[in-house]
Amino acid sequence: MTKPREIRLSTTPTPEALADLRLGDVVYLDGLMYTAREGVYMRALEDKANIPMELPRDSAANFHCSPAARINPDGSFEMGAVTATASFRFEKWLPEWMDKSGAKLIVGKGGMNSKTYKEHFVPRGAIYLSTVGYGTGALLGRGVENVEAVHWNEELGLAQAMWVLRCNKMGPFIVASDNQGNCLFERENEKIVANLAKAYEGTKPAVLKRYGETDDRSDEVIG
Amino acid sequence: MIPIDLIQSTAETLMDKAAIEIPQDYLDGLKAAAKVEDGDLSSFVLQAMLENYKAAKEDRRAMCGDTGTPRWYVKMGNETQIEGGPIALETALRRATANATNGVPLRPNRVHPLWRTDHDNNVGIGAPEIEYGYEPGGEWIDLITVHKGGLFGTDYRMLFPSDGIQGIKRFYLDSLVAFGKRGLACQPAIIGIGLGGCKDTCMVLGKRAACLRTVGSKNSDPRIAELEDEFKELGNSIGMGAMGFVGKSMVIDCNIEVGYCHTGGMQMSVHAFCLSSRRAVARVFPDGRVEHRTDPDWFTDYQRRETVDWPPLAEAAE
């Protein structure tokens, strides 16, 4: 077995650093990263609220995450475990969000498909990083040196708020797209689907069918 | 009489333990899977998870940032009495859920389905779920909390007797493959399968099979126990591992529970209890003793009974 290559990466990465990333590389992040998912996207893009951070100057890393955290009565923060939530649900907001925020790292769970990477990520020089597991919440929590701010908590609640995290060797993350728009998960799926027939041997389709059903197991349930 | 304050304080401790401490049976199962896993990326993921469990315990922080949807399974003996009665019990469990959400902290996951209202404490309409079971004899109460995560990895289908075992296998594989891709099911998982009952009870059986039985446990029906072993092996032969990467660790264990169903049908549900298989159990006695454990021991002979009366007539005659 070969161990994956380990890389430390800034949350405001240079184009060169991004170009060097290969599918399956393991990445640890340094710098500021903010959480933003459907609540933030809708507020910023549909309600046209002013984004309460200077982006991408402060951070070019958008984490699809709701932390296990609390805000103390004195206004300080307690950050426990941190893991991502499945990203494919946020796809429709991403092109506009990347234009507006200048995000170069989209960090989440499960990735997007290669079509999305090629159409929206590659032209903007962005890369997708996946969390590991899922999820290594305690390890990622250790990588949060400080919670710098929580924006829009009153409007969106703790889970949907925009948490600004100072990362110190925060990880592991896995590179799931590259600058060509290739998709790590699709690469793995292709290898797996070749052997699926063997596992299915002898089984039979259900007597009662369902609308919209597929028997093509190279299909995915996302997107 | 079991003091209500003791129930609430024990429940708060359980919330904390469930979120932070991976149960030993699951940990042993994952270590065994890590030993045989030979996919490069899958191996890396399993090693990272093992480190993560250690970090969670050392730091006393939740093992996963998605701390699931806390729920309670309560079991009582036939003679159990609780100070304040069932209303006080449910209040204590709701309070413990809210307090621990803020205390551990957990992620306040529970929101209104339409208005997305979030009380930031995992309590709301129907949340946390509280389900009950009873055992003959005994004055104790078992408090079991399960924080099952995941929006993916669960499915239901109405099958029929003519679908047979091969139809069951097909739906099982379909569920694993569909939700295993990209690791949406957060596998390797404890897979619970519910067979029979009605649509709702089939889901309940499968969920309980995943969440309330330990890794290594067997169904008391030897033919079902055989199927469990066969299904575990089948799931691990797909060629898929953690995060949907090439590998061989998909299923840490497969548990099947059955219920009598309509004569024309064969309902089936599949559930995945993920890499953070969060469950914690305590038995509280009227004298104030509290015994912690990680095995819910839910599926007793009484829970699986087939007879009208208990004890069964044949036994009573002996």
Give a structural overview.
The complex is a heterodimer of chains A (223) and B (318). Chain A has 223 residues and is α/β, with parallel strands linked by helices. Chain A has helices at residues 15-19, 38-46, 94-101, 114-121, 137-142, 153-156, 184-200; strands spanning 6-10, 26-35, 61-63, 69-71, 77-79, 105-108, 127-131, 144-151, 162-175. In chain A, the strands form two sheets. A five-stranded mixed beta barrel of chain A has the order 2-3-6-7-9. Chain B is α+β, with helices and mostly antiparallel strands. Helix content of chain B is 37%, strand content 20%. Chain B has helices spanning 4-20, 24-36, 40-59, 85-103, 164-180, 199-211, 222-235, 313-317; strands at 69-77, 130-135, 141-148, 155-159, 189-196, 251-259, 266-273, 279-284, 290-293. In chain B, helix 4 links the parallel strand 1 (69-77) and strand 2. The interface between A and B is large, with 63 and 69 residues.
Structure described in brief:
Chain A has 223 residues and is α/β, with parallel strands linked by helices. Helices cover 26% and strands 25% of the residues of chain A. The two termini of chain A are 33 Å apart.
